[in-house]
Structures are given as structure tokens and as C-alpha cells.
Design brief:
Blueprint: H1 12-26, H2 30-33, E1 57-60, H3 63-74, H4 79-93, E2 103-109, E3 116-121, H5 143-147, H6 158-168, H7 174-187, H8 193-201, H9 203-206, H10 210-216, H11 232-244, H12 247-250, H13 253-264, H14 271-275, E4 280-282, E5 285-289, E6 292-296, H15 303-314, H16 324-345, H17 356-359, H18 362-370, E7 395-401, E8 407-413, E9 423-424, E10 429-430, E11 471-474, E12 478-482, H19 489-502, H20 507-512, E13 516-517, E14 525-527, H21 534-542, E15 547-549, E16 557-562, E17 567-572, E18 580-583
Parallel strand pairs: 14-15
Antiparallel strand pairs: 1-7, 1-18, 2-3, 2-8, 3-4, 5-6, 6-11, 7-8, 9-10, 11-12, 12-16, 13-14, 16-17
Helix pairs in contact: 1-18, 3-4, 3-7, 4-6, 4-7, 7-11, 15-16, 15-18, 15-19, 16-21
The structure holds glycine (GLY).
Length: 584
């Protein structure tokens, strides 16, 4: 099934018309300022083709997970086996961010043949999805059913994605890669402060579901500091996945328990929804920028399209020649324009016809670039748009390069903190609340007052739009595996990480660097404390920007590979102290 666009796609002339209009309205000289970018993609940078680092590096948001990946590498596994170990362990030790009740997106590069592929293990809407379930009787959106309990949960993709990775790219049987997660779930671990805080924050929602209380509020309280915390049900579910592959989750005992629990609590999953789940392999988006090739996530993520569009706009400017305030100004304006398109056009490629050729074209970027004024913010209200949807916040990302040069970037999520807060009795599986990433009620504003877009409307079996942007940056001298959680800020954080890497920064500096974000609407720049020195901040305000302090930023995990010295580096975001980046 496909949807046609509600308004014609913009062509180059329309964008240039807009540029002229803006120039007249804002009193600037847009055309004079725009530099012409290269018309066609530059030749792909030579990559590390035959080079092997001889060592491996993993960076993840939790040291148990990084160590699980290293353990599997030591047993003879490759980066893809290690990814299975890291993701499944995060499912146990960092359930507030991701898990086997959720989904992931990954970009990988196989060293042997240079194959680059996007693995889409995103959740899908159940066949019985009904927009009315997300409306209150008075016709306003029901945020509770969208965010909490079984109606908020899509059919999980992560278990199938892990089985897929092991079968098609790994060297070890799934049971070996899942062994660390099973062991930790069975023997127990000490929850870190962020998990304890997440449970305390969502305690009222968790209390609505008996199996969630049993798992997360033992004795009525979040687990205490230093307590060993076990989940035999989750260990058993992981064992069935290890023994039977995807069927261990999507058919038989676990599937029956999932469907029974969901339906008993008012949800609408069926056995056929689970049995029919499919992992999709898609061609990644590839964009050239300053001699590097960025390999990133295509729809149903909006992340790669937005990153590519921003880079295509920026490569027509000589950023190095500008002062910091003007450099930031251009980056913000590129973000603004890319997010406008993100809101408007994107959805599940199996359901929606999208103007990707236009969005990724250097000619389209030329037009957008010319609509940017030299030293004035463009109000978002002056850029035509129809709709917007806002993906959720809580997700995790990890990066791996192995000794042979296999690379994988994985971003995984259950959507908001602790997902739907609904644990399916007898499985230990915490379900996601990814249905909120759909524009659930067409024509009705969501919790942020934004209208949903038809391209991202829920349909049976459809995947909800994501911001997840797992990315590889391939260069002649250096390469990187990069990504971040953070809802819609994922895209801008990954972009800033890519720009920092290309500027020569180390993995540690990239993970730690302060961040800023603009997403078209609301029309403001979210800023991390200290990101701009006072003079730059003043200059940006004079150009018309509202700088809005934001506390919460994603935990970025980066691995870099220097081809000249053939050395790896790994860094975990210092904002998350339990993370670990390690080279072994
Ligand atoms: N649930 C967050 C995302 O997929 O972007």
C-alpha cells in the first residue's frame, strides 16, 4: 500500500523562490551569501579495504554490556556476535532504554566483502491497531493509551533482529552470544543509579501491572543500591530464544504468554502478529562530506535522511573560514530545514512513497542553502510545512569494531523510560511503548501540540517513524562508528558527532562535547550548559535565536579507527558513568 503526497514535492525552483521571498521579507541577501556545493557526490573515500586492526573496541552505555561483548569476542565471535551479546545484556541491565520487548536499527559493514547494510528490527503495529484506542471520548488524544500499558506496545523486533544478526553475519551460535545476558539475568546484578531512578520515576505506572510490580518493585519498592537483582523469567525467555532462534520468542510458549498477557490487560495482539514479524534488510543512506563517506539509517528512520540533507546543505559553505557564531548559525539553519522535511514526508518505506531522491539530492540542498540568510535566523513559520511528529526520548546506542575490521552501529529502544511499563506475566519481557512514535490520530495534535503526518499514520504491520541514526563514517585516514539515544535530538547529536570526528576530534572528545539542537518546531535552539561561550551566545541571540537550556542529552558511544597508525579508540559518554568504552 502507498500514500500519495498531499502537496507536490518541492523542486529546485520552488526552493529558490522561497529563498527570494525570505530575502525580501527578512531584508537579507540570501543569494549573495550562498556558496555553490558540488553538484554530484564526491568519489567515495578509499576505505580500510584490506586493513585489519588486530584488536577490537566496544563502547556501550553499561559496563556489563561492553564486557559481555568482549567476552563473546574472546570466544571467537565477531563484531556481529558481540552486538548480539551487548544488546541482549542491555536488555537485562538497562531495561529503561532498550530490550527484547523493543526494537533496534543497525548499520553494519562486513570487512570481508565490504557489504554495508541497514538492519531494520523496528517494531510493527499489530493487525488490530485502531486509532480510536488513542482518543478520549471527547475526541482529544489519549496520551495514556499511547504511552502506557499494552495498547502502547508495537510487536517487538529485537529478538528477531538478534537472531538475524547471529544467523546471517555472526560466527557463533546464538546460544553463545546470548550466554552472558542469560547468566546475568539468572545470577543477578546491581542496578545502577539511573535504573533505580527510572523505576522510582515510573513507579506509579509500574504499579498498574502485577507482573511489572513483581519485576521492578520487589517488596513494593525499587531495588536498593547494592542489591543483587535477578529475573529468572527473562533468563528463561532468553534461553528459549537461544535454543530455538526467533521461533523461541515469536512462536510457542513465550508467544502464547505474551498474547495472553497483552489481551488480558486490554491490548490487541494476536499470535499471528508475532509469528508474522519480519526483520528487513535495507540499503543504507550514503552521503559524502569533506572526503568522508557517511553510511547511515534510511526510513523508517528519519535520522539518516536528515543528517544527509544537513550535510548536503553544509558542504556548500566553507565553515572553516567563519567565526563560531556564524558556523553554528548555518548548522542550525540546516537542521531547521531538514527537520521541516522530516516532519512532513517520512514514514515506513513499505507503506509510504517518499521523495527520497529529492530530499537527498545536492540540487535540492542548493535551493535550501540559498534560503539561508547570512546572519539572521529564519523563523520556522516562514518555511512551509504541514505536520510534525515527535519521537520519544529513551533509547541506547553502542558501537563495535572487531579485530578483522567488521563494524556495527546499533541503536536500540523501548521508547520512553521503561517503555510501556508493562511486563508480560511469566516472560520477564518489558514491552515497548513505540506506538507513540506513530502520528496516532490523524489531524489531531499530539502531546506537544503538533499535528500528525499521514506518512506516519498507524496501519496494520506498519513500522513507526524513528529518529535512530546508527552511523558509520568511512575515511581514508580515519573511520568511526557512532550513534546516540535522545529522541529527536538523536539526529542533531549524531550530526555534531560526525562533524567533530571529521574535524579530527578523538572518540573521548566527541562523546563528551557539549551539544545544541534545533528541530524546526518549536522554533528555538536547545542548548546544553556551556556549549556556547558568552560572545557566541550573544551573537546568536542578535541573529534572532532563542537559546533554551536543556538538561537531558543522549549518551553517545563512539569507536574510532585510525588507519595511519592502525589503532582503535572507544569512548562512552561521560554523562552516563556506568558506560564503558574499551579496546581489547
Ligand atoms: N523511540 C525513539 C525513536 O525510535 O526514535
Amino acid at each position: 500500500m502507498t500514500f500519495s503526497r498531499r502537496r507536490p514535492a518541492w523542486g529546485r525552483s520552488a526552493s529558490r523562490g522561497l529563498a527570494l521571498l525570505l530575502g525580501l521579507l527578512l531584508g537579507g541577501s540570501a543569494a549573495a551569501f550562498a556558496a555553490d556545493g558540488p553538484r554530484a557526490a564526491t568519489a567515495a573515500a578509499p576505505s580500510q579495504a584490506a586493513q585489519k586492526p588486530g584488536r577490537a573496541a566496544i563502547a556501550s552505555a553499561n559496563f556489563h554490556a561492553t564486557n559481555a561483548g568482549l567476552e563473546v569476542l574472546a570466544r571467537g565471535g565477531n563484531a556481529f556476535d558481540a552486538a548480539v551479546a551487548v544488546a541482549s545484556t542491555l536488555s537485562v541491565v538497562e531495561p529503561e532504554s532498550s530490550g527484547i520487548g523493543g526494537g533496534f536499527m543497525a548499520v553494519l559493514r562486513r570487512a570481508g566483502d565490504g557489504r554495508e547494510v541497514f538492519i531494520d528490527a523496528r517494531e510493527t503495529a499489530p493487525a488490530a491497531v485502531d486509532s480510536k484506542d488513542y482518543l478520549k471520548p471527547d475526541g482529544t488524544p489519549n496520551r495514556d493509551t499511547a504511552l502506557n500499558g499494552p495498547l502502547s506496545a508495537g510487536i517487538p523486533g529485537e529478538p528477531a533482529g538478534l537472531a538475524w544478526l547471529a544467523k546471517h553475519y555472526g560466527k557463533l551460535p546464538l546460544k553463545d552470544s546470548l550466554a552472558p545476558a542469560i547468566r546475568i539475568a539468572r545470577d543477578g546484578f546491581e542496578p545502577d543509579s539511573r535504573l533505580r531512578e527510572a523505576i522510582a520515576d515510573r513507579a506509579d505506572d509500574l504499579r498498574r501491572w502485577p507482573a511489572s510490580v513483581a519485576k521492578y518493585l520487589p517488596g513494593g519498592k525499587p531495588p536498593a543500591e547494592g542489591a543483587a537483582w535477578r529475573d529468572p523469567d527473562q533468563a528463561h525467555t532468553l534461553e528459549l530464544l537461544a535454543e530455538r532462534g526467533a521461533d523461541g520468542f515469536y512462536r510457542g510458549e513465550v508467544a502464547q504468554k505474551l498474547v495472553a498477557a497483552v489481551r488480558a490487560a486490554g491490548g490487541n495482539w494476536s499470535a499471528a502478529d508475532l509469528a508474522g514479524y519480519q526483520v528487513k534488510e535495507r540499503a543504507p543512506i550514503s552521503v559524502d562530506y569533506r572526503g568522508y563517506r557517511i553510511v547511515t539509517a534510511p526510513p523508517p528512520s528519519s535520522g539518516g535522511v536528515a543528517v544527509a540533507e544537513i550535510l548536503n546543505i553544509l558542504r556548500g559553505f566553507d565553515l572553516g573560514k567563519l567565526d563560531r557564531a556564524h558556523r553554528i548559525h548555518l548548522v542550525i539553519e540546516a537542521m531547521r530545514r531538514a527537520f521541516r522535511d522530516h516532519n512532513d514526508y517520512l514514514g515506513d518505506p513499505d507503506f509510504v512513497k517518499m521523495p527520497l531522491e529529492m530530499l537527498l539530492s545536492p540540487y535540492y540542498a542548493d535551493g535550501l542553502r540559498q534560503s539561508i540568510l547570512p546572519d539572521k535566523a529564519t523563523p520556522s513559520s516562514m518555511l512551509p510545512y504541514t505536520a510534525a511528529a515527535d519521537p520519544g526520548m529513551h533509547t541506547t546506542h553502542f558501537s563495535i569494531i572487531d579485530k578483522d575490521g567488521n563494524m556495527i552501529a546499533v541503536t536500540s529502544t523501548v521508547n520512553y523510560t521503561l517503555g510501556s511499563t508493562f511486563v508480560a506475566a511469566g516472560t520477564g519481557v518489558l514491552l515497548n511503548d513505540e506506538m507513540d512514535d506513530f502520528a496516532l490520530v490523524a489531524g489531531k495534535p499530539n502531546v506537544y501540540g503538533l499535528l500528525g503526518s499521514e506518512a506516519n499514520a498507524p496501519k496494520p504491520g506498519k513500522r513507526m517513524l524513528s529518529s535512530m541514526t546508527p552511523s558509520l563514517v568511512i575515511g581514508a585516514d580515519r573511520s568511526a562508528v557512532i550513534g546516540s539515544p535522545g529522541g529527536s535530538t538523536i539526529i542533531t547529536q549524531v550530526l555534531e558527532g560526525i562533524l567533530a570526528f571529521i574535524d579530527g576530534k578523538s572518540a573521548t572528545a566527541i562523546a563528551a562535547q557539549k551539544r545544541f539542537h534545533h528541530q524546526f518546531m518549536p522554533d528555538r535552539v536547545d542548548v546544553e550548559e556551556g556549549v556556547f561561550d558568552p560572545a557566541t551566545a550573544e551573537s546568536l541571540k542578535r541573529m534572532g535565536y532563542e537559546l533554551h537550556p536543556r538538561q537531558s542529552w543522549g549518551f553517545m558511544n563512539v569507536v574510532t579507527w585510525d588507519h595511519k597508525t592502525n589503532t582503535l579508540d572507544a569512548a562512552s559518554d561521560p554523562r552516563r558513568p556506568s558506560g564503558l568504552g574499551k579496546v581489547q
